[in-house]
Amino acid sequence: MPILEVINLKKRFGQLEVLRGVDLSMEKGEVLAVIGSSGGGKTTLLRCLTFLERCDSGRITVGGDEIVGEAEFPVKTKKGEPAGTEIRSVYPNEETLRVKGLKMGLVFQDFNLFPQYSVLGNLTLAPMLVQKKSRAEAEAIADEMLAKVGLSDKRAAYPYQLSGGQKQRVAIARALCMNPSILCFDEPTSALDPELTLEVLKVIASLKTQGVTMLIVTHEIDFAREVADTVVFLDKGLVLERGPAKELIDHPKTERAREFLNKIVSRAAGKDGE
Fold first, then answer.
1. Higher confidence at residue 1 or residue 41?
2. Residue 232's beta-bridge partner residues?
3. By the 8 A CB rule, do 171 and 203 touch?
4. Is the pLDDT of residue 72 over 70?
5. CA 194 to CA 197: how far, in whole Å?
6. Picking from 70-79, 179-188, 221-230, which range would have the lowest pLDDT averaged per residue?
7. Would you give the end-to-end CA distance of the chain in angstroms?
8. Pairing mode of beta strands 4-13, 65-76
9. Contact status, residue 218 vs residue 38, Cβ threshold 8 Å
10. What CATH number is attached to the domain comprising 30?
């Protein structure tokens, strides 16, 4: 059974259709990278999957539990007259969604750490408030996760005392503290310089060896090629191509994916020549 199954996910903002029927599935322990041009729907997809945004229609099942279902609703004209029906997504109540939503952990591209709390405070806050763990339990989990990201010596530090790479590693540890079924990343290195980017990518690669299931929206194509098991190419709200990471990146089958990847390669070659 897939740990994540997404069926016909759609989302629009006004007249703009951002997701146009996305199908997606993941197995436990899989690392899936989503690539594509800016504005293609990658971040909106991730926000829908982590329940920060509500999709218009489609189903989302995590670990066999259908969190977002579908139902048929009547449609009326502007005059209030019946105009048939349409399929829409159905969400559970807010409390149930909050609890079930914990299955999807999210690491933001801009860290989102609480500046008034220490590293330890950032990591223990949600387990204590949401999962009702004792301080001792929460701190034990926090210390374990800080060790995973190589920051055990920073537990008493505050965000302003950390580098960008260290902040992102703390954000990863914070997400892991909630024991999510899937750890999601939204462009985790976009706010970092090349040296700090490498620091964060090494941590993500290490998590893969530990069997952590990860869904990564990224522009780091070389990293996706080496670390991801599967790559999805998302363009204009549609999955145009899906396949083993190295196979898709080295030998894309669709013209649009080839065009996108060739631009990435050309841009990288230009930087190397500077």
1. 41
2. 34, 242
3. no
4. yes
5. 5
6. 70-79
7. 48
8. unpaired
9. no
10. 3.40.50.300
Q: For residue range 77-114, what is the model confidence (pLDDT) as tens digits? A: 887 787 888 999 999 999 899 888 889 999 988 889 99
Cβ atoms of residues 54 and 94 within 8 Å: no
pTM of the model: 0.90
What are the respective helix, strand and coil percentages of the chain, to the nearest 5?
40, 30, 30
Contact 231, 240 (CB under 8 A): no
255: containing domain: 4-272
Q: How confident is the model at residue 271 (pLDDT cuts 50, 70, 90)?
A: low
Backbone angles phi, psi at 224, to 5 degrees: -60, -40
Phi, psi of 229 (to 5 degrees): -80, -40
Q: Give the residues across from 19 on adjacent strands.
A: 11
What is the arithmetic mean of pLDDT over 257-267? 86
pLDDT at 269 (0 to 100) = 53
The whole-angstrom separation of Cα 271 and Cα 248 is: 23
Q: Is a pLDDT exceeding 60 seen at residue 270? A: no
Three-state SS at 246: helix
**CB distance 206 to 237 below 8 Å:** no
Report the 3 state secondary structure along 95-137.
HHHHHHHHHEEEECCCCCCCCCCCHHHHHHHHHHHCCCCCHHH
What total number of domains does the chain contain?
1
